[in-house]
User: What shape does this take?
Amino acid sequence: MPALCIFSARQRRHAILMAELAEAVTALGARVVGCVVQRRGVSDGGVKAMDMPYSSRTLVSAGKAREIALAREESGADAVVFLPPLTDHQRDVLAELVGCPVISSTDLRA
Assistant: This one.
């Protein structure tokens, strides 16, 4: 299942966080078929936006949501796992956008 990690350009641990998430998903018997990373703070405009939250509705930009949906469709994934916690509303909206159940890493521990 594709996993998504949201991190700022200043956070250099994104590869470690993604590996830890993939390991947790695999430990539950699922197979990770891809990962998508949302980068912030790489461009001048991105740096200025780092202190501002992403959309409270989707947690990601519309373009990134389309990228995730396409990756899910191409891989045949049954679910998408997000690293950050999600509200019930975010989970519902994202599930509609990507076309499958959406969970967060905090759900894996429950």
